[in-house]
Design brief:
CATH topology: OB fold (Dihydrolipoamide Acetyltransferase, E2P)
Number of helices: 1
Strand order of the largest sheet: 3-4-5
Strand content: 35-45%
Largest sheet: 3 strands, antiparallel
Length: about 60
């Protein structure tokens, strides 16, 4: 799960596994596999970095 910020500054947490595409239009639009589209304040690189950090966290989780 990653935390992002909507344009109205409210926070939302999304399942990073559901991200299909991230576009800069110039707003950052995250499209989920469910076809839901979210416009967020973070730029594309920030969203990608959050996804990478999330995946690292779950890959190296102690058992």
């Amino acid at each position: 799960m990653i935390e992002l910020t909507r344009l109205n500054n409210s926070k939302l947490v999304i399942n990073a596994e559901l991200i299909e595409t991230i576009e800069s239009t110039p707003d950052t639009v995250v499209t989920l596999t469910t076809n839901h589209r979210l416009v967020v304040k973070e730029d594309v690189e920030e969203v990608v970095e959050k996804v990478i950090n999330y995946k690292r966290k779950i890959a190296f989780r102690p058992e």
